[in-house]
Design goal:
The protein is an alpha/beta fold. It has one domain: 4-Layer Sandwich (Metallo-beta-lactamase, Chain A). Helix content is about 30%, strand content about 25%. The chain contains 6 helices and 7 strands. Strands 1-2-3-4-5-6-7 form a 7-stranded mixed beta sheet. β4, α2 and β5 form a beta-alpha-beta unit. It is globular and about 55 Å long. InterPro entries: RibonucZ/Hydroxyglut_hydro.
């Protein structure tokens, strides 16, 4: 799992640390009801199974801290499990696909199948509104926008779905502040 970082690890071991990083994984079974995975010092992480079929074992996470709550969708279509998990979250980070806007353009192509198991931006706007999400951050954008106009199309779709809160179309290294 760390093979892509072998050169970086070797350099760090040569200059600043004696041993390679320790990889800790925690496998878990996930169901349609949220399950607590971890809790320490006022921070709790829950997970719930989401719908990314035909890809199995997709999950969403809810991270609660004393400063606020962040939900991260992972790959999924818009589903009740994410909506329930996102109830009153300060930030929802969710993948977004312009399915409604591009339905005619992808009809009969392989993209039609791909779009079927990703989150439609219009439906996502409705989910975020109903869940009372404070800030919706879009990620894993399909298709990836090339410019501000392309980003604006994602925003327009979400607003069409009814979401009126704070909205960010994700870019690499973008941050959000809670609390």
């Amino acid at each position: 799992m760390l093979d892509p970082y072998a050169a970086d690890i070797a350099l760090r071991m040569e200059h600043v640390q004696e041993a390679p990083p320790e990889l800790r994984t925690h496998a878990f079974a996930c169901a349609s009801e949220p399950r607590e995975l971890w809790s320490r010092d006022g921070v709790t992480v829950e997970a719930v199974a989401v719908h990314h079929e035909p890809v199995r074992d997709a999950v969403a996470y809810r991270v609660r801290t004393p400063d606020g709550t962040v939900v991260i969708s992972g790959d999924t279509r818009v589903c009740d499990e994410v909506e329930a998990l996102s109830r009153d979250a300060d930030v929802l980070v969710h993948e977004a696909c312009r399915t409604t806007a591009l339905r005619a353009a992808v009809a009969g192509t392989p993209f039609e199948k791909i779009f079927a198991y990703h989150a439609d931006t219009v439906a996502l706007g409705g989910l975020a509104m109903r869940a009372g999400v404070g800030h919706l951050m879009l990620t894993h954008l399909i298709p990836a926008p090339d410019d501000e106009a392309g980003e604006g199309a994602f925003e327009q779709d979400v607003r069409l779905g009814g979401y009126a809160g704070t909205l960010s179309v994700g870019r690499d290294l973008m941050t959000a502040t809670i609390g």
